[in-house]
Amino acid sequence: xxxxxxxxxxxxxxxxxxxxxxxxxxxxxxxxxxxxxxxxxxxxxxxxxxxxxxxxxxxxxxxxxxxxxxxxxxxxxxxxxxxxxxxxxxxxxxxxxxxxxxxxxxxxxxxxxxxxxxxxxxxxxxxxxxxxxxxxxxxxxxxxxxxxxxxxxxxxxxxxxxxxxxxxxxxxxxxxxxxxxxxxxxxxxxxxxxxxxxxxxxxxxxxxxxxxxxxxxxxxxxxxxxxxxxxxxxxxxxxxxxxxxxxxxxxxxxxxxxxxxxxxxxxxxxxxxxxxxxxxxxxxxxxxxxxxxxxxxxxxxxxxxxxxxxxxxxxxxxxxxxxxxxxxxxxxxxxxxxxxxxxxxxxxxxxxxxxxxxxxxxxxxxxxxxxxxxxxxxxxxxxxxxxxxxxx
Length: 392
Fold this sequence. Notes:
Blueprint: H1 7-14, H2 20-23, E1 32-33, H3 38-42, H4 48-51, H5 57-71, E2 74-78, H6 83-95, H7 98-105, H8 107-111, E3 113-123, E4 126-135, E5 140-143, E6 148-154, E7 160-165, E8 171-175, H9 188-213, E9 217-221, H10 228-244, E10 254-258, H11 267-285, H12 299-336, E11 343-347, H13 349-365, H14 372-379
Antiparallel strand pairs: 1-5, 2-11, 3-4, 3-8, 5-6, 6-7, 9-10
């Protein structure tokens, strides 16, 4: 058999050739990689600039809609190994605050990445994860080798950011479309920054216009030859009329009420607000057709919207599954020294129930007997749902 590659060539194939250390002259002097996001860069890397965007009602609504695509899913644990270990993992997932963990993991879509620190407890001789708490993104930084570190600022006159290595089995990192040059991930909120900012400015001008021109104008006509005192008296009477809706005038004086245009006032601002809301929806929901149709819809548009939301939900679901499976993997390594671990799978609750029913039916036909407690836990049943069956 001819050896095609030499040993020297094989070693080169296993190593990275294009590295930052070769390209950048001061690679070792600046060991960390700054976040390339332009919005954060222009605002001194203050993540509150992005967090405050969620005060916008429309942005908050579409973000909630996107997260709910995953939060409403059911889950099941699959494992080809010990049934006892699988049950342990099921109990851990049931006791942990799964909804909050999903919420925190999906923040990676908004801020590019999300870091969760796991809280462990020792129970019956085993170390158990009881919660995973999200920590602020600004507390962390990536090295030029794309490794996550706790941010530290050191030095005297010349300050350099360097990262402290994170302990094993303590942190879970979720990233939204990271790359070699941007491990901080893509930030959906950065894509919404200008749409929200410009909409806020437009709403402020709109409010000012409504306050100034939205109320009817009172036009008072004074007699020819009226003195300045008469004019002042008439003006004061009109002011009182606006405040109290009651006024009396001399017989020869006349009052005209001029209504503002009913539809023209603010139409431009309304159009701008709708336009920016559509841009926000596109950035968060990745849907273009239905967000621009306004009140006019069609079956085709609804179908497109459903398909796009479904595709987006699959991507977010995988992000959450990866984070939770990392926690499960830590549990297996710490307690059993095994890298092969049970896996969580998120899917529609109906699908989970149907798959479980089919599996349990086959097992029962094979002679497996399930307890009342099993059915109550698996299918969310109460004591009154059994009707005297499965007493053991």
